[in-house]
Automatic annotation (TrEMBL):
Gene: cobM
UniProt cross-references to PROSITE patterns, sorted A to Z: SUMT_1 (PS00839), SUMT_2 (PS00840)
Top-rank taxon: Bacteria
Protein's name according to its UniProt entry: Precorrin-4 C(11)-methyltransferase
Taxonomy of the source species: Bacteria, Bacillati, Actinomycetota, Actinomycetes, Kitasatosporales
GO biological process: cobalamin biosynthetic process; methylation
Length: 249
């Protein structure tokens, strides 16, 4: 039997992938993050499936549930919000399953930053303006940032930065990025991306922290800072240029 780590997407139930939904429908056990995964997705599970909300479970308890289901002969769906590849705590679960000899697969999902970009109607990489996107967070009570990955250091690149888990610390984000991006640099915050109560804030580094405070946003949001957010008069890409030789492979 197999454990499937499934990216449930950013919030809207219909943003799960077709593969994710089909796999969910075949699993007799489903572990899900109740505070983040939309409950509508659980309707995809078999009617008699065992549903386990992991919101109040620690890593050992989660691992025990996964291993037990495997040993009982059940495929297991482990639903994670967004995409398992970033800020999902999947790595530590996979390490435990490796040690227990339990097979698993990973099914990607729509990440929060992609849903935020869609809400903003913006491409995060724009020709001649910005071709690099940094996905990061800031250090606080949770795991410390590795050396060289602090926001002030990353900001020296001038690349577009997407911050997860940082809405509560918007003041710190602004303080550390201002010297590198300038007060007029476009910034945006998207909370609850793709959900009915989605909230979008647009501004600059000069005012975005005040907007976040006024809106009362403290979680389930991404902060995006970079010049591509305000790019207008940029050059068209080479991809669809009439000058491109379309006969070359």
């Amino acid at each position: 039997m197999t454990v499937y780590f499934i990216g449930a997407g950013p919030g809207a139930a219909d943003l799960i992938t077709v593969r994710g939904a089909r796999t969910l429908a075949d699993c007799r056990v489903c572990l899900y993050a109740g505070s983040l995964v939309p409950r509508e997705l659980l309707a995809e599970c078999p009617p008699d499936a065992r549903l386990v909300d992991t919101a109040h479970l620690d890593l050992d308890q989660i691992t025990e549930e996964l291993v037990r289901a495997h040993r009982e002969g059940h495929d297991v769906a482990r639903l994670h919000s967004g995409d398992p590849s970033v800020f999902s705590a999947v790595a530590e679960q996979m390490r435990r399953l490796d040690a227990a000899g339990v097979p698993y697969e990973v099914i990607p999902g729509v990440p929060a930053f992609a849903a935020a970009a869609a809400a903003l109607k913006r491409e995060l990489t724009v020709p001649t303006v910005g071709q690099t996107v940094i996905l990061t967070r800031i250090a606080h009570r949770a795991t410390a940032m590795p050396e060289g990955e602090d926001l002030a250091t990353l900001g020296r690149s001038g690349a577009l930065i997407v911050l997860h888990l940082a809405a509560r610390y918007a003041d710190r984000v602004v303080e550390e990025l201002l010297p590198h991006y300038g007060a007029d640099c476009p910034a945006a915050v998207v909370a609850l991306a793709s959900r009915p109560d989605e909230l979008i804030l647009r501004g600059t580094l000069a005012d975005i922290a005040d907007q976040v405070k006024a809106a009362g946003i403290i979680r389930t949001a991404v902060i995006i800072v970079g010049r591509t957010l305000g790019a207008e008069g940029f050059r068209d890409s080479h991809l669809y240029s009439p000058e491109r030789d379309r006969h070359q492979c």
